[in-house]
Amino acid sequence: MSLFTQFILLDRPVLSYRIENDQLYLLSGREIAKYDLKSDAISRVEFFQKDGLSRRLLVDADYLYCEDFTMLYIFDKETLSCCGEVKLGEDLTSDICGMDSDDKRVYAGIRNGSLAVIDKASITTKPQVEFYEISSSSMWVIRSVGDKLYAGNVEGHLLVIDKQTCKVVQDIAAHRQNLKSLLIYDNRLLSASQDKSFAIRNLDTLDVIAVRKSAHRKAFRLAGIWKDVLITTCFPCGEIKLWDLDKLEAIKSIPIAACNSGQLTIYEDCAFLASRGIDGLERVAMDRLLQYDRPPYDD
To answer: In terms of pTM, does the model score above 0.90?
Structure first.
């Protein structure tokens, strides 16, 4: 029996969700919804005219964003009404990849390596967008930290981009295949790759602290860190792993239903799970996850 229990029941699986200040924003089917983790109140708005599997959410202090192929939609966080939209590409050669934001701009990776930078002051009226050639391959993950962007591309490189000039100031061959997951924690930068490895670097110097190879049998993502335990998820092979960050040893291997894609997020003392096989969201207390008694297998 799964450790996870039903948390939000919906008619369809959750494609993407984000949590900020006890508000859980999610996409399901043609709907966008907001769930208050304190009051259990839920608001749901049907916005999209047709189904889509590539939509992903981003939330910051100002807006809720949804990328949908080449379109970026901007929503009011309180009412869930759409207050702006901008088309960033034309077709499958220019759809939106990784995305992040800060207090002034939204940064969107565009397939095949360019970066769209959107001025937030104009985003609900006539969005001002500038494009920069950054990478020779698509950047599927972007993280904004201070005056820098950290991005991973399909070639496995970690790119450090100066926000002011939008130029690459460091290009590190960090992995052998697609670098598709980044996590910033306690002045450390963690990266995970399709080559089944993850690396830990000093955020200031980007010097390697440690590398773990064969972390999972297939491509995986970094879900989060809780009490110095790293949580990784591999949906194609149906497992969650918990790692001792000091020893880089797997301390738990927890089975979940295998599927092509999903999302696991750690928020406060709980883990929230979405996947193609779940209509809604499931949840488990992190204490219970850590108490799971199945030992990890050796790859």
So the answer is: yes
